[in-house]
Design a protein that fits this description.
The chain has 221 residues and is α/β, with parallel strands linked by helices. It has two domains: 109 residues, ATPase, nucleotide binding domain (Nucleotidyltransferase, domain 5), CATH 3.30.420.40; 86 residues, ATPase, nucleotide binding domain (Nucleotidyltransferase, domain 5). It is built from six helices and ten strands, in the order E-E-E-H-E-H-E-H-E-E-E-H-E-H-E-H. Helix 3 packs across helix 6.
Length: 221
């Protein structure tokens, strides 16, 4: 069974190809703009390298956010288009919080009473979600400023992970830290495996955008 996963929600275009749990290929290119133009040609090249036709893909996993408004729309639009063109294809959405928290399953000694996934917004605030010691969500995905997140975490033992951790912890918080797992980016392989796990559990999440704040727009004069 072949799984294709991709993500354009952050400052990169990332693609992974799996056969069952075996990763066959990964593509990642950092970019602030142009992810949508890069995505389709790179998927085509990846499949041709492995002599796989798109009709052989069983599962398509797409990151639904949070992230840039344009990046989220690009990913989901592409995934839905693939689903319309290929009726046999199962299209499944996974949010970045789910993919990040899954990485803790590989290092159970780093799991704390509360596990906070903190994702970069490139603004003053952060995207975040909290999980318990069983890696089950105990808060909804949210956007909040640093002080409000700290207030929600007082008197708890915490593990921090995500690409927003380094900026979040660049000054004292007064929190009780169990582990710190900073990341430069969301691992597209973890996104793929998270989607594959959902597929096998028959959790068929049709991709819907996870927007946690309004888009930044301006009116040109």
């Amino acid at each position: 069974m072949y799984t294709l996963a991709f993500d354009t929600t952050a400052a990169a275009c990332s693609i992974a190809l799996f056969n069952e749990e075996q990763c066959l290929d990964v593509f990642r290119q950092e970019m602030d703009f142009g992810q949508a133009e890069t995505l389709l040609p790179e998927i085509d090249r990846m499949l041709k390298r492995h002599q796989i036709e798109f009709k052989q893909i069983t599962l398509l996993v797409v990151c639904v956010g949070p992230g840039s408004f344009t990046g989220v729309r690009s990913s989901i639009s592409a995934a839905r288009a693939f689903g319309l063109a290929c009726p046999q294809l199962e299209v499944l959405g996974v949010n970045a919080f789910e993919a990040y928290i899954r990485t803790l399953a590989w290092t159970p000694e780093q799991i704390a009473q509360v596990n906070a996934v903190v994702i970069e917004t490139k603004r003053e605030d952060f995207y975040y979600q909290l999980f318990d010691e069983h890696l089950k969500p105990i808060s909804a995905p949210s956007a909040a400023n640093r002080d409000d997140i700290i207030a929600a975490l007082r008197q708890k033992k915490i593990t921090f992970l995500g690409d927003g951790v380094e900026r979040f912890l660049n000054s004292k918080t007064g929190l009780s830290l169990h582990a710190i797992i900073p990341s430069q980016e969301l691992d597209i392989k973890e996104l793929a495996l998270c989607g594959l796990n959902k597929y096998r559990k028959k959790e068929h999440n049709y991709p819907k955008p996870l927007y946690l704040r309004a888009p930044d727009v301006c009116i040109k004069g």
